[in-house]
Amino acid sequence: MVQLRQLRYVIEVNRQGNHISAAADALNTSQPGMSKQIQELELELGFSIFQRSRNRVTGLTDPGREVVEIAQRILNEVQSLKNIREDYGAQEGGTLTIATTHTHARYILPRVIKSFVQRHPHVRIGLLQGNPTEICEAVETGKADIAVGTETMRPFPHLLRLPCYQITRSLIAPKGHPIFRVKTLTLEAIAKYPMIAHDPHRSGRWKILDAFEKKGITPTILFNAVDADVGKTYVEMGIGIAVMATDAFDPAHDRALRARDASHLFEASTSYVTLRTDTYIRRFIFDFIELLTPALTPDHVRATLRARERERAAK
After folding, report:
1. pLDDT digits (tens, 9 = 90+) for 117-173
2. How far is residue 296's CA from residue 289's CA, in Å, rounded to a whole number?
3. Given its phi and psi angles, is residue 90 left (phi above 0), alpha (psi -120 to 50 degrees) or beta?
4. Where is the HTH lysR-type domain (predicted)?
5. Global pTM?
6. 224: burial class by Cβ within 10 Å (0-12, 13-18, 19+)?
């Protein structure tokens, strides 16, 4: 008989790039025990899930790819049953795990989380931080309930991504910097000074550099900052200037810095809330989404989820 534990093992081995030892560590079990369970599952099914070479897993077989997809759906449905039990079992608590980027975690979500905690004091909040692609991967694999972030480096066809708001950009430089004396802020004026750039995995970097490239301008990039706070640290030291999300500038804390609107020079990024379409979503998650973006009411999100499911069923 197929066991849920075996399905989890298969999914985790695939997730860990076919490394059974890494999968065993991630699930706090032994490598020999995991290997045995996977082999028993293959024996039960009558075919190999994984390709092997010299006793090493090297990839999925063709039927193995189907197994992974089905296994993920089964585990999602099991989690849905647990979520329904908690939603309708007079249990006010639970856990909301949000995968998000540094800018959102530091500057955008705090006010939302504060309101949410006041409304749902028994729900535990967990934050997973990463770049936009990584946070959607966390939702896709079930490590997070929702993701909040900007554009990703690859598509996620099995996730629903709902646009929340636009993130505009500002120029950040030390107080008294000559750039603030320029009457009209242009790309040419910005390019005269060395810059602290974004992490290459974030959409802000693409959009900023694309704006320069379209004008045939090559800015001097000193180095890539891992997040807005690190970038501002080096800007404050006078090493360079930066273009970053307007929300990332906090006048109360960034007293040695100044910001100047640059939204006319750089395309805004769209922030999305991302969630799975194949699992039951608890009611407090809908509440969080509405607090984040009032236009995304529970009824609107549910209707969009149903429409997505109909589209998938029709294919």
Report:
1. 999 999 999 999 999 999 999 998 888 999 999 999 889 988 999 999 999 999 999
2. 7
3. left
4. 2-60
5. 0.76
6. middle
